[in-house]
Every structure is written in structure tokens, then in C-alpha cells.
Amino acid sequence: MSHRSLPAVVLVGRPNVGKSTLFNRIVGRRRAIVNETAGTTRDQIEQPAHWRNVAFSLTDTAGMFGQSEDPLQKLVVEHGHRALQTADVFVFVVDGREGLVPADLEIASAIRSAGRPVIVAINKTDDRRARAGALDFYELGFEPIVEISAEHGQGTGDLLDEVIDKLAKLQKGGDQHEEEDHPVVEPRIAVAGRPNVGKSSLVNRILREERMLVSEMAGTTRDAIDAPFQWHKRQFRIVDTAGIRKPGRVARSGPVEAVSVLTARRAVADADVVVLVIDATLGAADQDGAIAGEAERAGRSLVIAVNKWDLVKGQGQEFSEKFDDKLRFDLKFLEYAPIVHISALTGERTPRLLEVIDNVMQGRQRKIPTPELNKFFAGVTASHPIPSPGRTAIRILYAAQVGISPPTFALFTNVASDLHFSYERFLKNQLREKFGFLGTPIRLQIRKRKRKTERDKAQSEWARGKTPAAKSSAYSTKNDRRTSGNDRGSKSNDRRSGKGQRTRGKHGKR
Ligand code: GDP
Ligand code: GDP
User: Fold this and answer.
1) 20 to 30 A from 239, CA-CA: which of 202, 205, 217, 476?
2) d(C-alpha 5, C-alpha 8), whole Å
3) How far is the C-alpha of 305 from the C-alpha of 314, rounded, in Å?
4) What CATH number has the domain spanning 370-448?
5) Which residues line ligand 2 (CB under 6 A)?
């Protein structure tokens, strides 16, 4: 069966890294019979698949790489070569638990010379051991790198986002349309806050429709809404969450806290950006802190909209500054959340609010190229050395952005030690300032680099093309299409694309 009209996504990797498991997950079938013994698959499988309405064909080059006494091996390899030649995008599956091994380097060479975009999927990261060894894969020089668990589904949504991003770029003919390089994902904005602060007024103002009942009475029940809207040619989606119930309605003691936390959870669960609405005449309350804390924990971005500013703006600049200082003090988590003073009633500064939300959204999805990131960390740690409690000075050997939404960075260090929390905060602030991660929590993963043997070192030097041997091999940098910049993506949803429950057996057991 052939689906040549579709763009071709080709899975490559050593036997037993999890290609078949990933293949099944992507085409949305029940698990094929997988086997711990290497080389149990030898058939190349091609199936149509789709993700976010983008259709592509997925090919598993099972059995192509790796030794085998299979009489059909020759055929398998031939088919595999054809797949390599016709690939539009490669997904290079590697085993995070085992780390980089020589067979991976051979595959890296083969796909490098094919000259197509390569996405590295570090698999089996459900196993903690898979994390420390990840660094070696970064040194292969392919980007992006996504950490996944094909078996459990973590990260596979991110991987597919990267795949369709690459396909979209190919279709547009490379990266020349940078100005259009906006997230493919429709940002979801949740408007949250206590009753009567003006949430529905704000949502209505934004949607320019009196869609919802606005009432003077606190706690008026409304249907939750979820409405798309356009702003400056960009599509957003606004989600209104009913206000947190007034404490008076529930018993004074326990349940109040429970209710507010629950509502906070609901408010942030579906959002990319949470707009926390505060009443200018009242300031922040505990519930606001609960929403803010929940947003931080869930990795959502946060913008604070101080509403009803029309009622206080007569009080001058000093009032304004004092108000913001107090607000930041009351909401301890939120040094990074931008504050906008608005009036949903008059529409004052609601366009500014949308501009800020848009900025925040772009920051959330920004991906910093690895070389730039490493230069940045080298500079920062040189001027502000990492405080090291032990005898060995802690150094960051290598840094890579391993995720977006929220931006997540892996820092590979020489010592297995956490960084002091104040230093982590310092690094986050520096990152935020330098790369414009406005209103967004930043995650740092500190990982001790695996100790390298001499052989490992030689291997990774070879992978980076530092040795003369590499120059004369199939490895060729001119075909190495590394990409960087705004790689788009989304939440790690693990919705499967494709449908049907057909099963695919793995043939050719030896
Ligand atoms: P293939 O030879 O590359 O197609 O690999 P398979 O998909 O057949 O998987 C090889 C083995 O790795 C099987 O035992 C799988 O259950 C296991 N495996 C695949 N993906 C994962 C994963 O994400 N985590 C873990 N822990 N094991 C996995
Ligand atoms: P919600 O419960 O948070 O959705 O709040 P509503 O949108 O229902 O607004 C509660 C009350 O505050 C209504 O009487 C609104 O007219 C009023 N209100 C909302 N926004 C503003 C504003 O910017 N300025 C003033 N003065 N009143 C506002």
C-alpha cells in the first residue's frame, strides 16, 4: 500500500528502541506484539496518519538497522533505503535508557546524508534512568529533541506537533516566512477571579457581544462559555469560568478553601494563559492567590488584569504604583506576571491587555536554539558563578530547551546536586529577561551528566564531526538541516491521531 501523495514521515532507529510501539500509538491502533528480543520486526510498514488535521504517511523502517540472519534482511534493507530517500521528515527514535551507542551513530550518518529534517525522539523516558544520558543525544546536533514514552504516551503529542511543524515549513519552502511563524495552536485564555470583579464584562468586551448575563448580584450562575475570537489576524479562544462562590454561601470553615482550590484548578486546567481579574477597589484575596498558585503549578501563564480602574484612576500615579506593589506582595508567586489596569466598562486598555496576552503566548511557545542557550548560560555563570556547597565547583556543562508551554530547560551539570533555589530563581529571571518569557513559569531540570568513558568521548567527537575520519565518511554537514527558532508545539496531550482498531502483527520472529 502506498500513500505517496501524503508527506512521508519515516521512523528510524535501532531495533528495540520502541519504533513499533510509537508507530502504533501514532496510527492509533492497538499495540502490536512487541518483543524484548532485538530484531523481531522486519517488515517496513507504511500507514496513513494525521495530527491536528494534517495528514501524512508514517513509515516504520523496522529491521533495517541492526544485524540479522534473517533471509529477508536484504529485502528489508532495500525497502528501508527507499524509505530514506523518499522521507520528508525523519523521526529518529533512540533509547534513553541505553544512551547513545555506536549503532545510533551509523543511523545518524545515514539520515544526515539524506538531508531532510530530523526530529530526535528519546524514548522510554518514563524510566528515570533515561534522563541523565539524554545529553549525548543533544550532541548529535539534530534539533528538535523530544523526550517521550511511546508506551505511556507522554510527549508523543509534542513530538507530533514538531512533525507537523516541520511539514508545514517544508510546504512553505523553508523558513522564509518568519513573520508568519506563529503558533499553530489556538491559544486558550481563561478569565478567572472572584465573583463580581468583572469577568463577564471583560469577556463580553473582548467578544464585543452581550453574550452573557451581567448582573450586579454576585454569584449569578452562568453557563461556562468557550468562544473563539480573532485579534490582529490571530485566532484565540476564550474560556469563561464561573466566578468562585462567595464564602458566605458555604460554611465558614473547611469547604471554602476546598471550593476555591477546585475552581482554581478548573480555571487553569484548560488554559494556556490565565487572566486573573482583580477588582481595583478591593485588591487581591486568598482565592486569587489560590488561582495564581495553581497556574504556576500547572505551568500556565498568568496575566493580572486589575479591572474597574475607571473608579480609581483619579487617584494618580502614586496610588497606581502602591496598588501594584501591594498586589505583588499579596500574590507572592507572581513576580513574573504582568499587571494591566483596565476598565471592562469603558474599554480602556482592553486592547493593551490583548497585546500582553499575545506576547505572553508567544513567549510560552518560544524555543531557544541550543547554541544560543549555551552561550547565554556560559555568560551568566561566568559573571555570577554557581554557589557550590561541596568541594567541587558546580558547572553547567550543557543546556538545552527540552520543552515549551511552559519553557523547560535541562541543565547538565558535573555534580549531582541541586542548585540553590535562589540561584535557580536568578537563572529563571535572567532567562525571562533575555528571551522574553513574559508571564510564564520557567522550569529547570538539573541533571548530572553521566560520566563518560574515553570511548564515549571519542564517539561524541566523531558525531560532532571533529575527527578527520568523520569528514571522509557519509557524514556531511552541508546536508545537515538543523532548524531552530520558533518551534511550535502545544500541551502534551496524548490524543491519538488516526482511528480504527486494526492490529498489526510483528512478523519475522527468529
Ligand atoms: P522496535 O524494535 O524499535 O520497534 O521496538 P518495540 O516497539 O518493539 O519495543 C521494544 C521494547 O521496548 C518492548 O519491550 C517495548 O515494550 C519497550 N518499550 C517501547 N516503548 C517504551 C517506553 O516508552 N518505555 C518503556 N519503558 N519501554 C518501552
Ligand atoms: P463577574 O461576576 O466577575 O463576571 O462580574 P460582572 O462582569 O458580572 O460584573 C460585576 C459588576 O461590576 C457589574 O455591575 C458590572 O457592570 C461592573 N463592572 C464590570 N467591569 C467594570 C469596570 O471596568 N468598571 C466599573 N465601574 N464597573 C464594572
Assistant:
1) 217
2) 9
3) 18
4) 3.30.300.20
5) 193, 195-201, 214-216, 243, 307-308, 310-311, 343-345
